[in-house]
Amino acid sequence: MSKSDSKSQVKFMSAMFKGKEIFKPLNTGFIDERVSCIREYVANIFFYTKNGHTIMIDAGYNYEKLAEKMSWLNIDYKDIKEILVTHLDTDHVGAIEKDSEGIFKDSTIYIGRIENEYLTGNKRRKVFWGLYKLPRVNIDNKKVLIDDSQVIFIGDIKIEAFIVPGHTWGHLVYLIDDMYLFTGDTIWFGADGGYAFLNTLAEDGKLQIKSLKRLEEILRKRNLNLKIITGHTGWTDDIDFAFAHTDEICNSLRRKPKVHDPKAPYDGFDESGDKKENIEKGLPKILQK
């Protein structure tokens, strides 16, 4: 998707979702000593740091302030050698598309083998119940294709991937070091817990619900102490909250009592509250000097 297409999408999404209490992105800052994030409009991208090595999870929009906001976190974009991609929607891969600034052109991207078919042209991304085809995403980076339940190591960082089709056909979530689950657009957190992500943007809503139930089953069997981190609605360490409504998908066209969150910004694309000085006030104690 071109930069102009990406900008058009931002304008359309902003107008469509104003006042719907849908998106609740985290402001740029730190979740804990290992995980930090950048806010790009309604989306978050994440960084995971262990023993001095930082990897990136998703690549956000084709976003002009990305390098600047990375500096707020004391992360140099030149140090990012690996990027885990949950799926290929442009709000998750914009910074590695062909006509981006190219700051990650030498990074290796990790992507699901099925999701890669959107890049090859074997699949076309469709939204609004298959009625609208999104422009094709183009990426030239070196790729490593990932299969369901595959475990890889980047340095001493353990990464396990699970396929959760529905939002896209090859969407992956990443379990890192058995402590952090990066879910991309698998789960949407409402005021009363997690649902399958937005109905209007799903390739197959019923499959999305089925995938979410499978993911919950896998995680509960392991009995892990997890931080479950979403691409658009924050994070939780309460697994019961995260999987409270696995049999439902968020209806993004209407609001229901106790579901949509009145704490969500009226316009999720308004970034006026995302400031460097707010990060410094909210640093975890372990990161403060």
Automatic annotation (TrEMBL):
Task: Name the InterPro entries for this protein.
Answer: Metallo-B-lactamas (IPR001279), NDM-1-like (IPR050855), RibonucZ/Hydroxyglut_hydro (IPR036866)
SMART domains membership: Lactamase_B
Q: Keyword check for Transcription regulation, yes or no.
A: no
Q: Where is this region: Disordered?
A: 256-289
Q: Which UniProt keywords apply?
A: Hydrolase
Pfam families recorded: Lactamase_B (PF00753)
Q: Give this protein's Gene Ontology molecular function annotations.
A: hydrolase activity
Annotated ranges, domain Metallo-beta-lactamase:
42-232
Its domain of life reads Bacteria
Hydrolase in keyword set: yes
Q: Where is the composition biased (Basic and acidic residues)?
A: 272-283
Q: What is the protein name stated in its UniProt record?
A: MBL fold metallo-hydrolase
Q: Which organism is it from?
A: Lachnoanaerobaculum orale
